[in-house]
What we know:
Elements: E1 2-5, E2 11-17, E3 22-27, E4 31-35, H1 40-48, H2 52-59, E5 66-70, H3 74-85
Antiparallel strand pairs: 1-2, 2-3, 3-4, 4-5
Helix pairs in contact: 1-2
Amino acid sequence: MERRKLSGGRLVGAAYDAMDRRLEIEFLGGEVKAFKDVQAEVWRRLIAAPNPAVFYADRIEEEYVTERGRVVRAADARSRLDALFGPPDRKD
């Protein structure tokens, strides 16, 4: 899956899987929306847009089926595992 950082508006980054035709948009605050059946041309135009947030609002937001999620950062994942299983044994 190809990932790119985006700037402008509330968009942080985007990723595209050409085989699955799946586009993921990450927003400020960690929300992620995944869009199904997105053509590669839409991906190319999004990352080339002078203002990706405007392109997203005009051409993607209302046009495709979406799934919502949240980005899980490595530190968050580690702390959740530690809370569940305890911290790893350290050999100092």
